[in-house]
């Protein structure tokens, strides 16, 4: 199996979610199923069916998180330097609008564009890999062709 790269923060967040599911969510849903069973006929018991559906979701997420964590290769960006690579925090300026954006390139399981965490497999991240400060990058995004200039690269 192929290792899944992720930052320490991403790994810690996945472990916290797994712990929450196993220690809080799973016992709560088991209790909800038991309570719903006590209400009688299970065929017409909406609470029971809802609880069972939620249990299926929780168990699926637990399995997914265990698999991802088992294949995780934690990379500490602080030990890296040089050109843009996994873990780099990159500040770009949009060549059309002069808008500055800062992203950290992370693994797909920890990516969140709203928080500035860019999936390594995204078009922008793929275009940035190997670039240096001052380089211009043309990226084909779902919204069309975009041009960026790399202002700074840091590894935190």
From TrEMBL:
<dbReference type="InterPro" id="IPR022691">
    <property type="entry name" value="Tscrpt_elong_fac_GreA/B_N"/>
</dbReference>
<dbReference type="InterPro" id="IPR028624">
    <property type="entry name" value="Tscrpt_elong_fac_GreA/B"/>
</dbReference>
<dbReference type="InterPro" id="IPR036953">
    <property type="entry name" value="GreA/GreB_C_sf"/>
</dbReference>
<feature type="domain" description="Transcription elongation factor GreA/GreB N-terminal">
    <location>
        <begin position="4"/>
        <end position="74"/>
    </location>
</feature>
<dbReference type="InterPro" id="IPR006359">
    <property type="entry name" value="Tscrpt_elong_fac_GreA"/>
</dbReference>
<dbReference type="GO" id="GO:0003746">
    <property type="term" value="F:translation elongation factor activity"/>
</dbReference>
<dbReference type="InterPro" id="IPR018151">
    <property type="entry name" value="TF_GreA/GreB_CS"/>
</dbReference>
<dbReference type="InterPro" id="IPR036805">
    <property type="entry name" value="Tscrpt_elong_fac_GreA/B_N_sf"/>
</dbReference>
<keyword id="KW-0251">Elongation factor</keyword>
<keyword id="KW-0648">Protein biosynthesis</keyword>
<keyword id="KW-0238">DNA-binding</keyword>
<comment type="similarity">
    <text>Belongs to the GreA/GreB family.</text>
</comment>
<comment type="function">
    <text>Necessary for efficient RNA polymerase transcription elongation past template-encoded arresting sites. The arresting sites in DNA have the property of trapping a certain fraction of elongating RNA polymerases that pass through, resulting in locked ternary complexes. Cleavage of the nascent transcript by cleavage factors such as GreA or GreB allows the resumption of elongation from the new 3'terminus. GreA releases sequences of 2 to 3 nucleotides.</text>
</comment>
<dbReference type="InterPro" id="IPR023459">
    <property type="entry name" value="Tscrpt_elong_fac_GreA/B_fam"/>
</dbReference>
<dbReference type="Pfam" id="PF03449">
    <property type="entry name" value="GreA_GreB_N"/>
</dbReference>
<keyword id="KW-0805">Transcription regulation</keyword>
<protein>
    <recommendedName>
        <fullName>Transcription elongation factor GreA</fullName>
    </recommendedName>
</protein>
<dbReference type="InterPro" id="IPR001437">
    <property type="entry name" value="Tscrpt_elong_fac_GreA/B_C"/>
</dbReference>
<feature type="domain" description="Transcription elongation factor GreA/GreB C-terminal">
    <location>
        <begin position="82"/>
        <end position="154"/>
    </location>
</feature>
<keyword id="KW-0804">Transcription</keyword>
<dbReference type="Pfam" id="PF01272">
    <property type="entry name" value="GreA_GreB"/>
</dbReference>
